[in-house]
Fold:
Amino acid sequence: MHKYELSPYKNGTAVPAYLPLPRFLVSMDLSNDAKILYALLFDRAGISRENGYIEPDGRIRLYFTLEEAKEKLHRSRQVATRAFQELERNNLIVRRKQGLGRPAVITLNILSAKKGDSLHE
Structure:
């Protein structure tokens, strides 16, 4: 069933690899697929930053294909496409097509708090 052994989470337990899910996503009117896709993209952006994939304006450039999204989400091509579209409609990502069968360049947008507001709600 699982590749891993399940055990209680206790003080001193090693934490497994995880995806960062920004709190602002929880209250947004997005499908869970779109939220998980954003978390996957956010994780990939960290790797891209480490590898120096940075635009001249400082934005982190990442590549994440529809096929990768399908595989990671364990969803159909149609569901993965809808998740990308939801993120674009909500201005959470910008995809720039390159053509010639090359993957789109993706940049993330992060919700930032206005002065005096908190994103920890």
